[in-house]
Amino acid sequence: MGNLSKENIELQLHMERMQNQLYKLVEQKGSFLAPEVIELSQEIDSLVITMQRMLIKYTNI
């Protein structure tokens, strides 16, 4: 479980950095519909799904 915790923390930190980047990008572009904003948002969504799958996998052991 130790590795899961470390990996989970690293993923959470990475997600927080991406979210901050998303906030700045929205401010810069002035729209949630800018292609770059949508792309980054989708990357964050994918990371969230990865994290959820990891947690499900390791809690069902």
Describe the model.
- This protein has 61 residues and is an all-alpha fold.
- The chain is 87% helix and 0% strand.
- It contains 2 helices and no strands.
- The chain has helices at 2-29, 35-59.
- α1 packs antiparallel against α2.
- The N and C termini lie close together (10 Å).
- The mean pLDDT is 89.
Summarize it.
Helix content is 87%, strand content 0%. The protein is mainly α and 61 residues long.
Jot down its keywords.
mainly alpha, 0% strand, HLH_DNA-bd_sf, Spo0E-like_sf, 61 residues, 2 helices, Spo0E family sporulation regulatory protein-aspartic acid phosphatase
Q: What does the overall shape look like?
A: elongated
Low-confidence stretches: none
Average pLDDT taken over every residue: 89
Number of strands: 0
User: H/E order of the elements?
Assistant: HH
Distance between the termini: 10 Å
Name the structural class: mainly alpha
Strand content: under 5%
Topology of helices and strands:
Blueprint: H1 2-29, H2 35-59
Helix pairs in contact: 1-2
Protein name: Spo0E family sporulation regulatory protein-aspartic acid phosphatase
InterPro entries: HLH_DNA-bd_sf, Spo0E-like, Spo0E-like_sf
Organism: Paenibacillus foliorum
